[in-house]
# Entry
Amino acid sequence: MINPEMQLVDDLWKVEMKSMRDGYGEAVLESGGKDKDVVVLVADLAESTRVKEFGEKHPERFVELGIAEQNMMGVAAGMALSGKVPIVNSFACFSPGRNFDQLRASVCLSNANVKIVGGHAGVGNGEDGANQQMFEDIGVVRSLPNLIVVAPADYEQVKKVVPAMLEHEGPVYMRMTAPKRPVVTTKMTPFSLGKAQTLRKGADVGVVASGVMVYEALMAAEELEGKIGVEVINVHTIKPLDEDEVVRVAQKCKRMVVAEEHQVMGGLGSAVAEALVKEGVGAKVKFVGMQGVFGESGKPEEILNKYGMNRQAIIKAIREFR
# Structure
């Protein structure tokens, strides 16, 4: 049963398709436009990351650094330590993929108030091949002290993350995928950094999901309705993890599936496993995601299907418990 408190869309079978990056561009223009301290930095990807309009309307607070992601992160750290609120924009394969050293030493070590947005994560750059398909970014950054890590579920949730991360004092990393994806949350769906959301209630198996896999988890639960009761949790904040919610679901269902558009090592799945071990909670857990391999060139949907990041993979994992 869908949790009415979450105020999701009325019909999961007839959802609107929108890109997270479009929601991000709108939110940056709205929230960033109000705060004179917000500065948007980009590395030759203004259109792709949807910050071009912000640059046109606020050129005095827009910095194009060219293809120099490492330099961009260093510049952002200096701005933050001078009282500004810089937002660093690039593809996730470049930021944090290429500028991890500057993120670690210049931003996180100083607890500098920098916001990092990794676009086109996961299958976002499908046709460009494995080199630009970033399935490792959460694993790369999750261990960094002081850094908040967020993976919103859809277009509407991105629009809530942006003002929340700008209000947070300290570094934040948000990952997004590029293709248009189903919008399941609404303007009325509540959101709070660090607080997971129970989107659907069930007693048999808990599915903990992030990013675009949240919709896939909900649809898997819909298809299994009347056969297996599936509880679906949206963990949009990977760090700090809502351990109380993860433990609650594990204790209730005893069987869990973690679904993410990311490597099964180092991301949400690892965070969930760590929480269960830490709290001494016994539960059977299966992981849906990239299984320790690189991708290949192809359309995003083709890659998701081939590498098992869809509702069918979640259903298969659930049924294997029985």
Notes: Residues 2 and 200 are 4 Å apart (CA to CA). The first strand starts at residue 16 and ends at 19.
